[in-house]
Design brief:
By secondary structure, the protein is α/β, with parallel strands linked by helices. The protein has one domain: Alpha-Beta Barrel (TIM Barrel), CATH 3.20.20. Helices cover 47% and strands 11% of the residues. It is built from 14 helices and nine strands. Helix 9 crosses helix 10. It is globular, with a radius of gyration of 20 Å.
């Protein structure tokens, strides 16, 4: 049914509600050319690495991203070290990283225990005379029962109930809350996903207090029409496009196309990771997030602003890939590094 509806969506773009939304958003897109990049490499990019990445490497990554002009850096995750050992040192990372005014450092907090740990750190007397490391948390759920069960061992409804309590307590402690929805366009267990369900979940996250909802193509199987269908469902459910973000993985090479499609439709926040770092332990074969370098390159070429130094982002992606023993997955990043090396060699002649 979803495939049939998507075919109708593409074939009858002028007459559908989706096309009406896109026409309405075109004016907004023309007026606001700044796209906020949420750099997720320190958390989502590194959390599934098998070899533990040293704390000093994570701290250097965060600090270097600041120099590149990134205004939002997802610094870590307060999850059980048993399940995500790579994030066990998040308390050390957020206490050792550089804190820059005007930059947000959200941390993933999936449950009440994680929030307890974060609040205990933020209440420490060590922050009495300096800026606290974060004023924002991120929470997550998924668009299918099977993925939610595998990821959090509960149903979607139970997940939202738990998250509502975490969100309320976080806001009571002056913390902003950002929401994630995983597998919005395809699930490794259930296949196609009902876009209307995504819209309803996004609405519930917004109603419980999330200021923004990130739509995650966790498996990286979506195409632009499918992401437009998800956006349409969210808007039809009453979620403003200003409150939505694009979180696209690149498993089938569609990540950048999906990002650009969502931005052209009015989305002004994009999650990305230098070097294309990332993956998903509950999604066999899923590759990393769409790389920051390609996103910034494409957005700048299309006339959007991000505030990010593309050359610096490419250097960071190249460095962190080498540091953790991975190939640099960013085509744009590799091209920029190769060009810079050639220019240096020519300058020596």
């Amino acid at each position: 049914m979803l495939r049939q509806s998507l075919r109708r969506l593409v074939a009858d773009q002028r007459g559908t509600a989706c096309s009406q939304i896109r026409r309405g958003l075109a004016t907004v897109a023309g007026q606001r050319n700044f796209v906020k990049i949420v750099e997720v490499s320190p958390r989502d990019g590194l959390q599934n690495e098998k070899a533990i990445v040293p704390t000093e490497t994570k701290v250097k990554l965060v600090n270097w991203l600041l120099k590149a002009g990134v205004s939002v850096v997802e610094a870590g995750s307060f999850v059980s070290p048993k399940w995500v050992p790579q994030m066990a040192d998040t308390p050390q990372v957020i206490q050792e990283m550089q804190i820059k005014s005007g930059v947000s450092y959200p941390v993933l907090v999936p449950n009440a225990k994680g929030l307890d740990t974060l609040l205990s750190i933020l209440s420490s007397d060590s922050w009495a005379t300096r800026q606290k490391p974060t004023d924002e948390i991120a929470i997550f759920t998924a668009a299918t029962e099977s993925f939610t069960k595998a990821n959090t061992n509960c149903t979607i409804a139970e997940s939202l109930e738990r998250l509502s309590q975490v969100t309320q307590r976080a806001r009571d402690n002056q913390l902003k809350v950002r929401g994630y929805i995983s597998v919005v366009a395809g699930c490794p267990y259930e296949g196609a996903v009902d876009a209307k369900r995504v819209g309803q979940i996004a609405k519930e996250l917004l109603q419980m207090g999330c200021y923004e909802v990130s739509l995650g193509d966790t498996v990286g199987v979506a195409t632009p029409p499918e992401m437009i269908a998800v956006l349409d469902a969210c808007v039809q459910a009453g979620v403003p496009v200003d409150a939505l973000a694009a979180h696209c993985h690149d498993t089938f090479g569609m990540g950048l196309a999906n990002v650009l499609t969502m931005v052209r439709a009015g989305v002004r926040t994009v999650d990305s990771s230098v070097g294309g770092l990332g993956g998903c332990p509950y999604s066999p074969g899923a590759t990393g997030n769409i790389d920051t370098e390609s996103v910034v390159y494409a957005l700048h070429k299309e006339g959007y602003e991000t505030g990010i130094d593309l050359s610096e982002a490419a250097r960071i992606g190249d460095w962190i890939s080498n540091a953790i023993g991975r190939l640099n997955s960013s085509n744009a990043g590799r091209a920029i590094i190769a060009r810079e090396r050639l220019q240096k060699e020519k300058a020596k002649l």
